[in-house]
Input
Amino acid sequence: MEGSQASRPVMKELRRGGRPAAGTDPQKRRQILDGAHRIFSELGFDATSMSDVARSAQVSKATLYVYFQDKEHLFTAICAEQRDRNVAEKLALLDVNQPLPEVLARFGMEILSTLAQPLVVAAHRIVIGVAERMPEIGSEFYEAGPLRVINAVAQYLDHHVAAGRLNVPDTQLAAAQFCEVIQGGMVKARLYGVLNEPPPRDEIEKNVASGLALFLKGYGFAG
Amino acid sequence: MEGSQASRPVMKELRRGGRPAAGTDPQKRRQILDGAHRIFSELGFDATSMSDVARSAQVSKATLYVYFQDKEHLFTAICAEQRDRNVAEKLALLDVNQPLPEVLARFGMEILSTLAQPLVVAAHRIVIGVAERMPEIGSEFYEAGPLRVINAVAQYLDHHVAAGRLNVPDTQLAAAQFCEVIQGGMVKARLYGVLNEPPPRDEIEKNVASGLALFLKGYGFAG
Amino acid sequence: MEGSQASRPVMKELRRGGRPAAGTDPQKRRQILDGAHRIFSELGFDATSMSDVARSAQVSKATLYVYFQDKEHLFTAICAEQRDRNVAEKLALLDVNQPLPEVLARFGMEILSTLAQPLVVAAHRIVIGVAERMPEIGSEFYEAGPLRVINAVAQYLDHHVAAGRLNVPDTQLAAAQFCEVIQGGMVKARLYGVLNEPPPRDEIEKNVASGLALFLKGYGFAG
Amino acid sequence: MEGSQASRPVMKELRRGGRPAAGTDPQKRRQILDGAHRIFSELGFDATSMSDVARSAQVSKATLYVYFQDKEHLFTAICAEQRDRNVAEKLALLDVNQPLPEVLARFGMEILSTLAQPLVVAAHRIVIGVAERMPEIGSEFYEAGPLRVINAVAQYLDHHVAAGRLNVPDTQLAAAQFCEVIQGGMVKARLYGVLNEPPPRDEIEKNVASGLALFLKGYGFAG
DNA sequence: GATGAATGAGCCTTCATTCAT
DNA sequence: CATGAATGAAGGCTCATTCAT
Output
């Protein structure tokens, strides 16, 4: 298993540059991404075979490889899409000109609703499950997703701290706390597979409201 | 995957006297569990082959199957051990007769120190990664671990709420919030593989202190 | 196809040392080598699948990989065997104490008989066919086989040149020439697949005799 | 692999008028042959994919199939071209009216220079490597190449034997011996991949001179 | 006629699991 | 009981070849 490192690649690695044509039909690409996302979410990364993906996406296995270099790249593409999809529009909610409690409430609702969605939970599960072996995927995902949100919240808090409305010594830490506290353990339970349905709206509302109240009072929010 | 478990030993049982049918040497069992834990933590569930386990545990592959029905059962056994190992002693810290802030501080320190350990993070990662396909493992793990802690904290809070020292409408929810705020995102980052070393003690202290302060003030703790 | 060099191996290459147990039953090893040799000779390296080999050797495909790291190593093992099998005993024929013409006649007969055997031709064919992509295999084969013979003959000629019985300015070159002339194109034709049966003995004799006469007269052999 | 070759064009033939059915642009054909030759020589038959060929020839893969029925036919076309390219002009050197030693020297130089060229070696390698599975390709190649040369030399020798200048009992055999002996093992080593650069002119000269001298003296050439 | 895209078949390799010893 | 050896099944990936445009 170790001696072959030098000799095996000889046979194929000689082939140089120029990939096969790099599938460019965006529609088909979508079809593949959607099908792959569906089945990856259902089975996890390792337990999903490329045949499964092909079946789920209704294309031939070979076509998969026209659009994506390999299984890992396909998966990474899905992750990237998943995190980037709505983050931007969510961050836009952090409007410093609106009243803080309402902004954070709305923002929290958005975040929690998204995070608790089964498909999103599934994506996080996979990334976490794979993080040991492929730390770059995990880090990248974390940084472009959760961390980006935390940073935005921290910046938002900075503003209000400067304005004297909040007493927060470490806004970065506070932002992380905020993101956790509004979840009330709801996402965590789902991560472990305890629950699988999207939570009812009132439960989300309750958790966000409770967490937000705790946060505001705890950091001495002065209307 | 589970069907053939009862039939094989039967033959042996018939031939010999009342000898214990399957692997019962507790020392060897330990050896296997330790080796398996080590390698599972390093590679994850799917990426670890039974050959890897055998090598890591220094036993033959066949012996593995004498002590554990299959890969999944072996893994489950490790998880069970992992969660149960220290939970009990940690819960004992929640002594209602000691001053609340100190109890929660000490308890939080314990919890966070444990959760941030690489091997523990690895175990959680695996369970989460596997939760989609094997929800029972995930649920069981969650219930015997995180949930058990939450419940204990909730009960502890109940006591102080009853004593009028705390104003908490939903102690179960508050317990979950407590468990999250004290982490300050420290465990989450590790879950995604962003960091891998155990955090320095002062960082843990800072996070617990900050989270606890937030929690106490937010829930109107009155000394 | 090129970007994956760094990322793909991550998944598996993590596994370290200790191969699976390295099949050691020499009988089974023989069985595999023989079966593989048979089918490789029939179909060539690339056109022979490991399934073909397994079938031909009457073992499971997985067993193949217990005894040989991969297809290339299996093939190399066959080549090594093939060249080493009889070379030594043939070189022993070059006895400087026997009369030169008889020695070279006997030696030439041995060499040509062997080289014209279908299975040997097949081995050479494969090695040559593969030499572009795997030059080490080709070189190694050439050096351990043809070159070794040439060197031995050169040394043998040296002796007789020193004794004044032969007038050869470059014995290395002469040795190469000798090895070729005695074949009379017989091996070459077989290499290209023109003929496939082993040549009749008298044809071999004729070619060797003719080539040897040419060689001796050409290099002024003086009884 | 060969079955479907006649049926496809039929449809087109019916629809349109007397337009040439299959790829007839000789320029494009050249382009394909050259590109294919280049890459086949580099990688060998099996290791060269039709994508490689398409890339090397700068045409689409589908176009390849307009000009050549399949991979094998394309390859065969290249081989045919390769052998026929210069054989004729070389055979013309065998002028019975010129002094024999000079003719054979010049002829030998031409032959050996050509055979030792990397691209030519590569072609031979491929044909040999493929000969087991596709004996017609091998035979055809051998007959139109090496054998044709041998025959011409044999005929040339016949003339001089008849003129009493040479004492050769079997000119066919002698021709084969001549072709081999002038190579001095130079081509053989290259066939096995030991060397890859074209040999320097003086080395070629030396081998031819040595071989020719041996041949002439051995067959009693009388000026 | 030329091409980009698609695919069924098949390859090498590995894995979880089970016997015979 | 422990093990070395063996294997059926499956996985990721590529290829020669063919349509629709």
Summary: The mean pLDDT of chain A is 87.
